[in-house]
């Protein structure tokens, strides 16, 4: 059985026959219909994901942010503002609590875990909030050859799934996904292009904020990558199995595996920015049913993100020009999920409050 097929993952779409009952519950709240905007479909989605045959409160238990990190061969071409060593340095900062994602997780009440999927230099020592899930010391340079082998790609999906399962077993029923990996806006752009057929021009952005000079080099390297792959495969878009090997990063592939395991357990997936969305594209191609469990937290300032969200017909909760990654957009959206659950659970109905229209 192929890991690139939902027969392997057995993800079940949510039970849409529950929709009228859930919608009626929302419409009975003391407010004009639809007046809570995007919070309403959000509450509906949470209720559908947790549906057990009758109307009951929705719960967000031990919300957890998983930040997957890895290095990228393509980054040796100086297409980021930072050298590859910064991936390792930022992972240490996540472990030590000093990064933006630490601040936002603390303020939103999220548990944070950091996962090394293939940072060049391994992290030494053991740490409470750190998981070693290494595949290799960075991917190969995708402009010249496939980023990873078939075995590495499969292992990435499986190991990512294990990380999510462990977080769910520890009590989480909602998982946010973040990433760290210098050069990974390049991997995300190439992967999104290969999976969707969206023109590369619309997907290559400034990442960390590179110069025009660097942008031209980044674009050329990504075009070289797409040409190399489409010439060898002979078609475009290509399937998830090939796309992840050719252009995936270890963190992106593990995020896709973790998302698949999250939906398999019928738990909610909180998608971050451009890079995490490229992992979502991968997971969606493997099991389209996963879509029901995905909440798109924000639209990043990275050029391709809006285009990919449009392609997915996804409405992000926030649009704040964030372009950091790490899971920051997902963490910032967490209070909105709590608010959606709160109004769904606690708000009075017209009957109970004695309000009549
Ligand atoms: C100090 C620093 C902290 C970061 N935190 C997230 N990223 C973000 O930037 C990287 C992607 O952009 P590019 O493709 O241009 O390298 C990823 O590591 C992403 O998480 C950071 C980048 C830097 C430099
Ligand atoms: O949207 C993102 O995920 C993003 C954008 C720029 C840099 N790092 C991440």
TrEMBL record:
It holds the Pfam family DBI_PRT. It is an enzyme of class 2 (transferase). GO terms for molecular function: nicotinate-nucleotide-dimethylbenzimidazole phosphoribosyltransferase activity. It comes from the Bacteria. Its EC number is 2.4.2.21. The active site is at residue 326. Keywords: Cobalamin biosynthesis, Glycosyltransferase, Transferase. GO terms for biological process: cobalamin biosynthetic process. Pathway: Nucleoside biosynthesis; alpha-ribazole biosynthesis; alpha-ribazole from 5,6-dimethylbenzimidazole: step 1/2. Catalyzes the synthesis of alpha-ribazole-5'-phosphate from nicotinate mononucleotide (NAMN) and 5,6-dimethylbenzimidazole (DMB). NCBIfam families: cobT_DBIPRT, PRK00105.1. Belongs to the CobT family. This is Nicotinate-nucleotide--dimethylbenzimidazole phosphoribosyltransferase. It comes from Alteromonas confluentis. The gene is cobT.
């Amino acid at each position: 059985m192929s890991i690139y097929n939902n027969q392997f993952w057995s993800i079940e779409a949510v039970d849409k026959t529950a929709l009228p009952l859930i919608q009626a519950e929302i419409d009975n709240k003391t407010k004009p219909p639809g007046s809570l905007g995007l919070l309403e479909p959000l509450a509906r989605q949470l209720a559908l994901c947790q549906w057990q045959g009758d109307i009951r409160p929705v719960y967000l238990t031990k919300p957890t942010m998983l930040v997957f990190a890895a290095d990228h061969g393509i980054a040796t071409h100086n297409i980021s503002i930072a050298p590859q060593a910064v991936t390792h340095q930022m992972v240490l900062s996540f472990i030590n609590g000093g990064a933006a994602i630490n601040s936002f997780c603390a303020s939103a009440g999220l548990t944070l875990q950091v996962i090394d999927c293939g940072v060049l230099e391994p992290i030494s020592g053991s740490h409470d909030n750190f998981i070693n899930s290494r595949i290799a010391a960075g991917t190969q340079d995708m402009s010249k050859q496939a980023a990873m082998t078939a075995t590495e790609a499969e292992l990435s999906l499986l190991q990512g799934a294990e990380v999510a399962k462990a977080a769910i077993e520890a009590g989480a029923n909602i998982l946010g996904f973040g990433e760290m990996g210098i050069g990974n806006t390049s991997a995300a752009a190439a992967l999104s292009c290969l999976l969707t057929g969206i023109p590369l021009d619309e997907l290559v952005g400034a990442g960390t904020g590179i110069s025009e000079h660097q942008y031209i080099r980044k674009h050329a390297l990504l075009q070289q990558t797409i040409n190399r792959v489409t010439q060898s495969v002979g078609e475009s878009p290509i399937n998830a199995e090939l796309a992840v090997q050719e252009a995936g990063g270890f963190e992106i592939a593990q995020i896709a595996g973790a998302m698949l395991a999250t939906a398999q357990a019928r738990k909610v997936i909180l998608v971050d920015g451009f890079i995490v969305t490229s992992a979502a594209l991968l997971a969606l191609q493997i099991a389209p049913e996963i879509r029901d469990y995905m909440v798109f937290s924000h639209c990043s300032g990275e050029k391709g993100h809006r285009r990919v969200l449009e392609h997915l017909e996804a409405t992000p909760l926030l649009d704040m020009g964030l372009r950091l990654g790490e899971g920051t957009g997902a963490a910032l959206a967490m209070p909105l999920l709590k608010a959606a659950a709160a109004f769904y659970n606690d708000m009075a109905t017209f009957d109970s409050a004695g309000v009549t229209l």
